[in-house]
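ugh ok fine here u go
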Amino acid sequence: MSPASPVDAGPVAERVCPPHAPDEPAADDATRRAFATSLDAFVAQLWPAIERRGEPVAWSPAGTALALAQMETVSADEGATLLGDRLAPSLPRPAFERALATLLRAYETPITNGGVQLTQRLFTDHHVRLVPDALTALLARWGSTPGPVDTGAPEGARRRIDGFVQSRTADAVRAIVAPHAIVADAPLVLVSAVVARFVCAGAVATGGFRVGGVAPVEVRVARCAGDVRRAAGEGFALLRIPAAEGALTLDVVLPEEGRRLDAVEPALSNGALARATASLTPWQGAVEVPTVRGAYDRSLELRNALWNAGFARWFDPERSTLRREGIRSGWLSELHHRAVWSVDVAVRGDVGATPVVRVDRPFVLVLRDGDGAPLLVARVTTVGE
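structure:
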């Protein structure tokens, strides 16, 4: 291991300007809806590759798209439309970029109660020098330039990257890069972190949660009521719970009684969830969801999943189009991703003697923004504080 270099000392510089011009208008309603639909297609592509069947896992499609947008910005022209072509081929490039910028501005700040924060950053080995117009574009579009690290001192680089994420998320995400995950001969590392706290209106209750044939364990549940919507899917029930006056919704994919979660989980990629979503109708009842706090904050390494989904160029030393000074060789070693999330309730008194659906067995959740864009997808197989 090489000795620590100057880039290993001190925090990585924070954002020095807002993304895009502060007075630039947000994407219009039609563009945001089209972008939300494109992120659902992204889920259908990637979820089967990262689902880790049977294990708890959480992933942010929106956060991953924002991270990849930074890689696209520093790539040469022939690869500049890769992200848009793969995610939203029907959207013109300016509209697609505006949708991404609107998403970033909505969710870049730390949260204090309920809400979502998305954090992403490109890090480069300190010997790498991107061409000036790539740095200018990165700063103008995303408000930051690459964070320099010494990949020849992997543990120092890891601590530096983790320190940046910890600082940006107000300590909610303390580590994002696994030990020994920094590759000394790869010049770029991309990170994406999400902090999500879904707080519905309702009451606190006690319920049970069971896995397999074991007896249910007693858990604290959020009894969410008000503007709940419900649909019958193909072997599952879809429950939509609002929060933050409709700014966020939580979709719960609950297998029918007696069915295993892995039997219905393909709904995320085979169109069944979209069909159920189209048939959602108001339901005058409550949903009891286990409160979960920090149980699913493990890191994901998304390189292989993205490679197989058509984003191989950025990870392939032979095909990468990174715009750097001198030789054009340069590639992305990994996209490290981590999600920390929770479900809770803001007590508003007695929710009344309404019918109740109990989410008392493993399920999938999708946290969406007001336009329907999936901010977080998670498989919930265990619960607990």
